[in-house]
From TrEMBL:
Belongs to the RutC family. InterPro entries: RidA_CS, RutC-like_sf, YjgF/YER057c/UK114. This is Uncharacterized protein. GO terms for molecular function: deaminase activity. GO terms for cellular component: cytosol. Pfam families: Ribonuc_L-PSP.
Length: 124
């Protein structure tokens, strides 16, 4: 029997949703934000750290990412987040990605990151 499993590291959420879900080897992470810090650089690094934590809790890592969606409160942050994101990826194969400028994000966040991964694919 296939089971849907909740992925959670105990962080605060802004509504009735799971931070992540996995079914077999497929992993979906809900939009992650870090509003405990100010500024796009700090929020980007904090949000990516949350992604790392959730992927680890699912027995995965960023090398298993296949799709990332980034929402920005100001599309002018694009080049800044690209530098941080590239540094974070390191030698991992970059996943497919879309980035959008939006009017507002939960909790006054400047960046929100949504991810999809397949456990064990690591650039296969």
């Amino acid at each position: 029997m296939t089971r849907k499993l909740k992925i959670d590291t105990g962080g605060a959420v802004f509504g009735p949703y799971s931070p992540g879900i996995s079914v077999k080897e497929h992993i979906w992470l809900s939009g992650q934000v870090d509003v405990s810090v100010e500024g796009i650089e700090a929020q980007t690094r904090g949000t990516l750290a949350k992604v790392d934590g959730l992927l680890a809790a699912a027995g995965s890592s960023k090398s298993d990412l296949v799709k990332v969606t980034i929402l920005l409160a100001d599309i002018g942050f694009f080049s800044t987040i690209n530098e941080i994101y590239s540094e974070w990826l390191g030698d991992s194969m970059p996943p497919a990605r879309a980035t959008y400028g939006v009017a507002d994000l939960p909790g006054g966040a400047l960046i929100e990151i949504v991810c999809e991964a397949f456990r064990g694919c690591e650039g296969a």
